[in-house]
Amino acid sequence: MFVFLSYSFSLRTKSLLWNKNLKNKATRLSARKGDIIMDILGGAPRVLGYPRPVVAQCGTDVTLRCQIGGDPPPDVIWEHKNFQIISEGRYKISEEGKTYLLNISRVTQEDAGQYICKARNSIGETYAAASLKVEGELLENNREIIQLKENGVNQCGDFGENLNGYIHWTPRTVTEQPWSTQSKTYAKESFE
């Protein structure tokens, strides 16, 4: 003997309607949104766990997490400042089950701000936002992480990296003669 079951659901304002047909007899159940999780039915992507705000020290590694469900499994991307993040260089995107991770190594002030985790499948899409705040200075392995202020914005970076025109140096460097960069001349006394 075979029993035919068919399920369907739809969201209407604050109600979740569940229609159940069993041997041509229909029964209608309704509940407030959130009372029943219809994970067995799948559907459009939905946020299962929202990302938490992260505060990190300049130069450290951070991980942002977003938990998304849906059937079929959604395609998930991360965005920052309206640009999609590609998994390369300091950025690594991965997934562990329904948890989608964005790892950022050696964070700088440029990495601070809001990150959007977007999920889409053939049925729908959703998104969740996380914030990253980058603070302070860091001394690591005799390498100096510096923080400069330009136009009221803190900039931090590793002395060995290009800071896009910002001043960078190695610890214990002494310069006896004035030097110049970008048509500006600085004397050693300017930094004491």
Tally of individual helices: 0
The CATH topology of the domain at 44-134 corresponds to Immunoglobulin-like
Q: Roughly what percent helix? A: under 10%
Residue stretches low in confidence (pLDDT < 50, at least 5 long) are 1-39, 149-154, 158-192
CATH architecture of the domain at 44-134: Sandwich
What do you see in this structure?
Strands 5-12-11-7-8 form a five-stranded mixed beta sheet, with no helix packed on it. The chain has a four-stranded antiparallel beta sheet with strand order 4-6-10-9, with no helix packed on it. It has a three-stranded antiparallel beta sheet with strand order 1-2-3, with no helix packed on it. With 192 residues, the chain is an all-beta fold. Among the domains are: 33 residues; 91 residues, Immunoglobulin-like. It starts with a strand and ends in a 6-residue tail after the last strand.
List the helices and strands and how they pair.
Layout: E1 5-12, E2 15-22, E3 25-32, E4 43-49, E5 54-57, E6 62-71, E7 75-80, E8 83-84, E9 91-96, E10 99-104, E11 113-120, E12 125-135, E13 139-140, E14 143-150, E15 153-158, E16 179-181, E17 184-186
Parallel strand pairs: 5-12
Antiparallel strand pairs: 1-2, 2-3, 4-6, 6-10, 7-8, 7-11, 9-10, 11-12, 13-14, 14-15, 16-17
